[in-house]
Specification:
Blueprint (H helix, E strand, L loop, with lengths): L3 H4 L7 H30 L4 H21 L6 H18 L13 E3 L2 E3 L1 H20 L6 H21 L3 H17 L4 H22 L1 H11 L10 H13 L24 H34 L3 H25 L17 H18 L8
Antiparallel strand pairs: 1-2
Helix pairs in contact: 2-3, 2-11, 3-13, 4-5, 5-6, 5-7, 5-12, 5-13, 6-7, 7-8, 7-12, 8-9, 10-11, 11-12, 11-13, 12-13
């Protein structure tokens, strides 16, 4: 007979996900230093300033991931409503702080800043996983099984959109669509009713603001305004083109020397392409593909539908962000502010992503047919 302690013992985590995340994190720290050193020296007088901050956040995120991976993910259900409700005043609070690059997305407290939208996207995923699990086959009914969830996600997406953050708002709606599909929503409802409405809404939002419309037009032909809206994308093309197949070598980027605006942020992938070449870029893409594959495997083998939905939601956030970031940097879609997960500079995004990895690792420790 098993003892209570034995029954509560979890299995091993998915080391594929663990090592993929660690490698991406290590690449991020190295490349942030390489990409930001010149910029930091010129702007801040300390070439290692961004490296030091990112190291602190990386260590914090690692600790958070390890700690959360040891807690039963089912306990998240109890705090999910509180987290979701808490995000509302946080999203409102950003409007009381100064805008950064024309957008109000951050709560700034002295040297520290917090971006509530990064927390919100995971809060929405946790809510959807909890509620869709309870809904069961009820999701097959359009008016009572799909519309309410689109309403909840749409509410938070609208709040984030008010901050001039179309990218995170779009990610929330895309991931909501994926989770509704996985939970059993009917194809005729999702693809026949929901998808067209979402596409129309995106087009309205893009062309409803002058700066978004300018981004769209410059994405189609960035050289029509090479010193303005098309500047960053053109510099990204120069960086990727200069890197070729093997790259110029680590630390040898030319575009990071004040040609590329803030090269350690959303466009760090172009600096990676310049220094590490096509080979380096393909290696990073392969790591994300591997992560997505393992994340789907964890979802399939999860102990229950709640774990499946939670794993799919978390995996989808990382996958969609990576796809959008790479698409933007390579000129495959309009320029938008989506950081590359685990690699781009930023404390809020990194720490929260790492904590989410703790959740998916815990799900991987509890598989079908295993008592915990």
């Amino acid at each position: 007979m098993r003892t209570a302690k034995q029954k509560n013992r979890m299995g091993e985590m998915d080391y594929g996900i663990f090592y993929a995340v660690i490698i991406l994190l290590a690449i991020g720290v190295i490349m942030i230093y390489s990409a930001s050193s010149y910029y930091a020296m010129f702007k801040e007088g300390d070439s290692m300033m961004y490296l030091k901050k990112q190291l602190i956040w990386a260590i914090t995120g690692l600790i958070g991931m390890v700690v959360i991976s040891s807690f039963d993910y089912h306990k998240i259900k109890k705090i999910t409503p509180h987290i979701l409700i808490t995000t509302v005043p946080l999203l409102i609070a950003v409007f009381f702080f100064p805008a950064v690059n024309g957008a109000k997305r951050w709560i700034q407290l002295g040297p520290l800043s917090f971006q509530p939208s990064e927390l919100t996207k995971y809060a929405v995923v946790m809510f959807l996983a909890m509620s869709l699990d309870a809904k069961g086959d009820g999701v097959k009914k359009f008016l009572t099984g799909i519309v309410p969830y689109l309403g909840v996600s749409g509410f938070f997406a609208a709040m984030i959109l008010a901050e001039k953050n179309l990218s995170i708002a779009a990610i929330i709606m895309i991931v909501t669509f994926i989770m509704l599909f996985v939970s059993g929503g009917r194809l005729q409802d999702l693809f026949g009713k929901v998808a067209p409405v979402l596409l129309v809404a995106v087009m309205i939002f893009i062309f409803g603001e002058d700066y978004r419309r300018a981004r769209m037009l410059n994405f189609l032909n960035p050289w029509q305004d090479p010193a303005g809206d098309g500047y960053q994308l053109i510099q990204s093309f120069y960086a990727l083109g200069a890197g070729g197949v093997t790259g110029l070598g680590l630390g040898q980027s030319r575009q990071k020397t004040l040609y590329m605006p803030e090269p350690h942020n959303d466009f760090i992938f172009s600096i990676i392409g310049e220094e590490l070449g096509l080979i380096g870029c393909l290696f990073i893409v392969s790591l994300f593909v591997f992560f997505v594959w393992r994340g789907i495997k964890v979802a399939i083998n999860a102990k229950d539908s709640y774990g499946t939905l939670l794993a799919i939601g978390i995996t989808s956030i990382i996958a969609v962000q990576a796809i959008i970031n790479i698409a933007v940097v390579t000129g495959s879609m309009p320029v938008t502010g989506v950081p590359m997960p685990f690699i781009s500079y930023g404390g809020t995004s990194l720490v929260i992503n790492m904590m989410a990895m703790g959740i998916i690792l815990n799900i991987s420790r509890q598989v079908k047919g295993k008592e915990v």
